[in-house]
Write a structure and sequence with these properties.
By secondary structure, the protein is an alpha/beta fold. It has helices at about 5-20, 40-55, 70-80, 115-120, 125-135, 160-165, 175-180, 195-200, 210-215, 240-245, 250-285, 295-315, 315-325, and strands at about 25-30, 60-65, 85-90, 140, 145-150, 165-170, 185-190, 205-210, 225-235, 235-240, 290. Bound molecules: (2R,3R)-2,3,4-trihydroxybutanoic acid.
Length: about 325
């Protein structure tokens, strides 16, 4: 082959090689507690689709639903260590890594979904995301778990006194533990992957979770009573590992952030759908539902704990959140 042609051929191969490298694909592991068709799965898949599209396939995800990579605490720790790339998790365990986040777990802090979403997407919530960076977690956007309600196998819960003495599984969350104790329950912190079996075996009488989790985890198979206590709003967050984030160009960072917003929108829409359709489905599965819970009795019961929450987080911060219209 003529020398010149050889040079051109070599240059072409190098270019291809470079192009090949430039086309290299990073497959990111993303995990969450519930099924791929749950609110977490819908939000995570929407995020990943947007990232893959926006980076022309340079970044894509491998989904790990159903707590395949462990409970939320384990998943968050793995992202912090870089052994996992992304996690879509509730703030249940997050306060153990970023203490400032615990304020959002105060019972009856948020009035409704509109209020909660406005606070989390506003200055307060965005500032909390920034606070995660110093703890080796890059919070991309607030997704959503939903308002939590109590389920149990013993009796209908209409007012706080009905919950007294029940052994209820809780997340590993100090604010929940303190708040729920004031309801008179015996709170039992436990990682999510152990909950279904614990309910089945009667190790605990009940648990508390949003309708989307109760539905997707098929808790109707192991829980007889659901009471719409709506005792706390459970935010969730899409977190990426600094290992991934630090290697992204500014334009790819912007693509990840835009994709996270789209994922959060999709997740919240699925929560809305589950809130609208879930009760009928659970009734069909045999769950006895108490809709007219005496919420005042729970608010009264938790009031004394607010003094401690105010000491820990600042009464002004709590008031500022509640003042958001
Ligand atoms: O985030 O552990 C829990 O009860 C959470 O709500 C669940 O992992 C979904």
């Amino acid at each position: 082959m003529h020398h010149k042609t050889k040079t051109i051929a070599a240059a072409a191969l190098i270019a291809l090689g470079v192009a090949g490298t430039a086309g290299a694909q990073t497959v990111m592991k993303i995990s969450y507690s519930t099924a791929i068709n749950s609110h977490y799965g819908v939000g995570s898949v929407a995020f990943c689709d947007e990232v893959e599209k926006g980076t022309q396939g340079r970044y894509k995800c491998q989904q790990f639903p159903n707590a395949a990579l462990g409970g939320e605490r384990e998943m968050i720790e793995a992202v912090q260590l870089g052994t996992q790339d992304l996690v879509n998790a509730s703030t249940g365990a997050l306060g153990n890594f970023v203490p400032e986040v615990k304020i959002v777990d105060i019972p009856f802090l948020f009035r409704d979904y509109e209020h909660a979403r406005k606070v989390m997407d506003g200055p307060f919530g965005q500032d909390l995301l920034k606070k995660m960076t110093a703890k080796g977690l890059v919070g991309l956007a607030w997704t959503e778990n939903g308002f939590r309600h109590m389920t149990n196998n013993k009796r209908p819960i209409v007012q706080a006194s009905d919950a007294s003495g029940l052994k209820i599984r809780t997340m590993e969350n100090k604010v929940h533990l303190e708040g729920y104790k004031s309801f008179g329950i015996l709170p039992t912190p436990m990682a999510w992957p152990e909950v279904f079996t614990a309910l089945q075996q009667g190790t605990v009488d009940g648990q508390e979770n949003p309708i989307p989790v109760i539905l997707s985890a098929k808790l109707s198979q192991v829980q007889k009573h659901l009471s719409l206590t709506k005792h706390v709003y459970s935010p969730a967050v899409l977190i990426v590992s600094p290992n991934i984030w630090s290697k992204l160009s500014d334009s790819d960072k912007a693509i990840f952030q835009e994709a996270a917003k789209k994922g959060a929108e999709a997740q919240r829409k699925k929560v809305n759908d589950d809130e609208r359709n879930g009760l009928a489905e659970l009734r069909k599965d045999g769950v006895q539902i108490v809709e007219n819970v005496n919420s005042e009795s729970f608010r009264k019961a938790v009031a004394p704990a607010y003094a401690n929450f105010a000491k820990e987080f600042g009464a002004d911060k709590i008031a500022a959140i509640q003042a958001v219209k």
